[in-house]
Write a structure and sequence with these properties.
Radius of gyration: 13 Å
Strand content: 15-25%
Distance between the termini: 26 Å
Helix content: 25-40%
């Protein structure tokens, strides 16, 4: 069932789940964000956020990137079904406006869908 929420079953929570994605990922990136993905055996997509304090210094900026990433994921989750995805941010991501970050995420989701279909 798809709702407007970011439910628990849509999250990558355990370290072992993150390790699976990091072990052999399908990767797409730009100068602000990197998305790593891997097929899962589920009927829905799951999202993990690894926004490092080393790259994004302030908690406000990290939380903003996480919030916008979750929102963008919710909007694209139907097309991303069957994938485990981890979002990584670079230092430059904190300088983006809300609209710019949404646009970057949207284009990365589309690229990820095309790349992981192969």
């Amino acid at each position: 069932m798809i709702t407007g929420r970011f439910a628990r079953h849509q999250r990558i929570l355990r370290p072992a789940e993150f390790k699976q994605v990091f072990a052999c990922p399908c990767k797409i990136s730009d100068k602000h964000l990197t998305l790593l993905c891997r097929q899962n055996d589920l009927s829905h997509a799951r999202l993990g956020l690894a926004i490092a304090k080393r790259n994004i210094k302030t908690a406000v900026a990290r939380n903003r990137i996480k919030r916008l990433s979750r929102e963008s994921f919710r909007q694209h989750q139907v097309a991303l079904a069957g994938l485990d995805i981890v979002v990584l941010a670079r230092t430059s991501a904190s300088q983006l406006t809300k609209q710019e970050l949404s646009w970057v995420l949207s284009s990365l989701w589309q690229g990820l869908i095309k790349k992981c279909e192969k």
